[in-house]
Amino acid sequence: MGHVMARLAGFGVVLVPYWPYTFARSDAAPDAVLVTNWRDDGPATALVDPADPRPAPGIVDVSPGPDHPFWVIETSPFDAAWPSGFDIEGTMPPYCLVGENDASISVQGSAHPVDPETLVAAGQTVVERRTMRGDVQVIELAYEHEGEQWWQGHYLLPRNGGRVLVFTAQSREQDIVTTRDGLEWMLALD
Q1: CB atoms < 10 A from the CB of 88, how many?
Q2: Residue 1: what pLDDT?
Q3: Which of 4, 15, 98, 161 is a plausible cystine mate for 19, CB 3.0–4.6 Å?
Q4: How remote is the C-alpha of 176 from its chain's centroid?
Q5: How many other β-carbons are positioned within 10 Å of the β-carbon of residue 128?
Q6: pTM of the complete model
Q7: What's the CA gap between 106 and 2, in Å, rounded?
């Protein structure tokens, strides 16, 4: 398969994976990334250490990039910081972040302005409405799923031309802080 819509940049390199893929942080070296290409015959992996970056044909291309000391997920419509505790999966455009206990963060858009109230599904209760720096509208929800309490947050990030990107995060109740902080760290670059 070919390249994807999202790439990872930081520590002097740019990583462009082959689809379908996963980026995961690795304990093997500081700031190292484990790249997995999901193939019909099984996963193929490559460990990319920014201190000694090497491409892995068919898994990930590596080129010189920005020197900032953190990883940035780059797409054509926006860039977002890669929060710790989440893997990047190329399962839905442009990507999805997956954390522990089924926590996830996804993005949709760019779309015409959305009324946050339309994002409340049946059985969900509004916990909080707020506006963050940069006029990001936030609506946080609580709901029950398969007997467990869950949290969901929708963050509407304004873009040019009156459009918005909708970031959606959800997690079980015990992972709310990690998931919320992860999403808000992502938006700190904008």
Answers
A1: 25
A2: 44
A3: 4
A4: 16
A5: 10
A6: 0.91
A7: 22
Consecutive H or E run containing 176: helix 176-187
177: burial class by Cβ within 10 Å (0-12, 13-18, 19+)? exposed
Q: How many CB atoms lie within 10 A of CB 97?
A: 25
Contact 36, 20 (CB under 8 A): no
Residue with token string 């992972």: 175
- Rounded to the nearest angstrom, the gap between the alpha carbon of residue 39 and the centroid of all alpha carbons in its chain is 22
Which whole-number Å values give the CA distances from 88 to 6, 37, 104, 173, in the listed order? 10, 12, 10, 22
Distance CA 170, CA 98 (A): 10
Sheet architecture: strand order including 136-145: 42-48, 33-39, 21-25, 86-89, 96-99, 104-111, 164-172, 148-158, 136-145, 125-132
- Inter-residue contact 95 to 5 (CB < 8 Å): yes
120: DSSP letter: P
- Which tokens is 27 given? 């304990």
Q: Across 106-110, 144-148, 186-190, which has the greatest mean pLDDT?
A: 144-148
Tokens of 49: 């250490």
* Each residue's pLDDT tens digit, 25-44: 998 888 999 999 999 999 99
CB of 159 within 8 A of CB of 190? no
The candidate with the shortest Cα–Cα distance to 55, out of 6, 97, 93, 3, is 3
